[in-house]
Amino acid sequence: MGDSDAVGAFTRRRRATFAAGRVASLQPMNGRSAAVCQSSATADTSTDIGSEKKREHSLERALFKSKNEKKKRRNDIGDRLSCHRTQESLLTSTSGYNNYRGILNWCVVMLVLSNARLFLENLLRYGVLVDPIQVVSLFLNDPYSWPAACLVIVSNVFIVVALYTERQLSKGSFSELVGFLVHCINMAIMLTFPAAVVLLVPSVTPVGGAFVLGIYTILFLKLYSYKDVNMWCRELSTAKAKKLARSLSCPSPQYFNRGDRKVCYPGNLTIRDMYYFVFAPTLCYELNFPRSPGIRMSFLLRRLFEMVRKHLMSWMIPIIQSSMKPLEVPNHLLWLMFFYWFFHSSMNFTAELLRFGDRQFYQDWCHFYKPLLRSGFSKIVSQSAVFFLSAFFHEYLVSVPLRMFRLWAFTGMMAQLPLAWFVGRFLRGNYGNAAVWMSIIIGQPFAVLMYVHDYYVLHYRQEAD
């Protein structure tokens, strides 16, 4: 009743035609014998049968193909009309969904709306606590009463000394030993000189002292990297000169595809290159930093707006602290706002101005971890050295401006080493991440509380008595 019946009828008709033709062909023709005629008829019949079978197979294939196409069209229509398939829920960890930007935007909106009243109450109660115009006028009228700002200006001396030393080393005027000693003395003075000024000059406030010591700490780490990278370039130049009788310095400037100038040693030892590295948001020096194609004004304005907004939101901290008795909440909010303001907004703003291409600001802060590994130290020793350096600078940036030494920051940072070992060995995934957050939320406010207690006892206990 379908395509198969048509094929059967067509086959029966063709067989009947073949039989009639075969009988007729057995009659004598033109005087030839019946045997000859019969053999000729047999050959013609076999040829006709083969060709007909081919046509039958072709027809069957065409009919089968049309049936498959009809079935495929029916399946395609079903797929288009179907709205369900096997899949996981979006909030399930196995779904592969990771775009939570909408939830982050919701958190920001809720934070702003919930704290708008606190912001207005703080503004009405305390007013504008810092007047930028008044600050600038006071500095211009009496700059020597601002020792922290003067220390920032003096920091240029250490930058110039490091650049001069590297130039002399590149020309061979200084030996490697002399250059190493000059660098060591320069960096040692960088850490001790501002600390002595902060400790001995009473007009330096804790905020101003922490700011200037932070600047000198950043310069110390930058110049350490600057010294090492240029030393490696000299070693490569010497090895190349011995092998190929030529150095790695470029006799003529080379250019990248976008037109950026490619610098080779010692062509990098310039004032412009040095100060680009000083202002670049990185602590690891390179001769040729990755550069972005241009400055995006919309991106720049967004980062500037974020910087101003985070500064205004910091006004809410006194009200939040008065309304939330546990110290962990306001301290943690302030830490999160500072982290976002510094590591995202301000660094992206600076990087966009300088067309600095590498925006992963959190990964390459420490320069001497890999050199320690290359020197033959084990991984645990190198990690311990990194944590020790971080603990030293945390204590340096807190104890010196407060003019008291309690080692709370140092102990807190060194405690991160066994915590990292414990989390890496016994906790995985979300549990390890939760343990790290708990250490940040509880450990940091605890250290701040200890410093606040000791500072109050040291400076205000007699007045209270």
Automatic annotation (TrEMBL):
Keywords: Acyltransferase, Endoplasmic reticulum, Membrane, Transferase, Transmembrane, Transmembrane helix. GO terms for biological process: triglyceride biosynthetic process. GO terms for molecular function: diacylglycerol O-acyltransferase activity. The chain crosses the membrane at residues 103-124, 144-165, 177-201, 207-224, 333-351, 405-423, 435-452. It is found in: Endoplasmic reticulum membrane. It comes from Seriola lalandi dorsalis. This is O-acyltransferase. One of its GO terms (cellular component) is endoplasmic reticulum membrane. It is a multi-pass membrane protein. The active site is at residue 394. Belongs to the membrane-bound acyltransferase family. Sterol o-acyltransferase subfamily. InterPro entries: MBOAT_fam, Oat_ACAT_DAG_ARE.
